[in-house]
Diaminopimelate decarboxylase (Brevundimonas abyssalis TAR-001), 425 residues
Amino acid sequence: MNHFEIRDGVMHAEGVSLEAIAAEIGTPAYVYSAATLRRHARVLREALDGHAETTDALIAFAVKANSNLSVLKVLAGEGLGADTVSEGEIRRALAAGIAPEKIVFSGVGKTDTELAFAIRTGVLEINVESAAELDRLIAVAAGLGARPDIVFRVNPRVGSGAHAKITTGAPADKFGAPVEEVMALYARAAASNHVRPVGLACHIGSQITELSPLKAAFAVLRRMTLDLRAQGFEVHRLDFGGGLGVPYFDRPGEADPVDYAAVAAEAARGLDVQLAFEPGRMIAANAGVLLTRVIHVNERPDGMRFLVLDSAMNDLMRPALYDAFHDIRPVRPREGAAGPYDVVGPVCETGDTFAKDRVLPPLEAGDLAAFMTAGAYGATMANEYNSRPLVPEVLVDGDRWAVVRARPSYDEMLAREAVAGWLIP
Ligand SMILES: Cc1ncc(COP(=O)(O)O)c(C=O)c1O
Ligand SMILES: N[C@@H](CCCC[NH3+])C(=O)O
């Protein structure tokens, strides 16, 4: 079921008209559907419940995809944990009521301060990505008299994802340690009194629409588990990462969570391990839209036709960064023939182009439109370039809605800065 649909001629998020939201808080604004978030969490949980190996798996939502406290709270209510990559994300997960035992701490460059924070918090596991990090973690844990559980993130040499900038498992990617290195690091960690190696992790990329690369990566972890056990090491946790793709409506084919669960279950068969998954996009992407208004249509004598929106690359960076496709739909569709537009924002960059030659239904100055599939890596990647105030976020839940991140006023934006004392006469 789609929770963003046209009713009485206007697009609604669940029971709330997007026109009503725009009238009250202005545009641009992200709007999330709590029902869609819950549905996606349940779809994955039910798929995992289909196999003995995956039934008790931890679903740790990748906070980087959408870190809004209300979104995390909705997902915490569904029993999800959190995959985090910074102290800030751990703090967000905790603030949303996610228990430390459901928090995974990943990332290629965790600082000593962040590692100490994670240890003191008592997170489920720290995913170690390199020899350099292992050494620092051992020193930090020794200083605290602690012995955290760690999992090694393997770079399985299987890269996948919709764009070169979002693969993470190819040999030259900065993520994870090569298989042979992990085998050596595992022994080094097991010999330390300050970390306890308990398993392996991988995450090979994002917006993955075919299961074969995931299957290959999971098979690497399976083989390593058997090899490590044969050497007498304990391996009881496997973290299969995230990466599952979603429909962006430009091309067919997202991976089916039921098939995904089957692939994961097969890889873990007979291993008697505790599994974790770190989905981000799959949970949040289609649970959000970016609501925007047409500033004007610039029809030039040279034939170019620009649809100039009040949202820009600073609000939704994916098209500029990855040439990503986002479906653009009128909030109140008009009668008339569709036609091509170059869809742009007001930021002073040629790259501030959402789509070129996109055939869209008629749109006029003042009309509202929605970027679909914007609930993941939208608001979290937004910034204030061109001194455009940070885009606000709204959560809809049935007939209720609330602003869950307010648009800063210009005064608030300026108040974060200061003029150095010596510059004031
Ligand atoms: C370690 C890790 N886990 C999980 C994710 C979430 O990925 P996705 O949103 O594609 O599911 C990411 C981001 O790609 C990641 O780097
Ligand atoms: N931010 C990216 C995906 C990277 C995921 C994080 N490793 C996107 O919007 O598609």
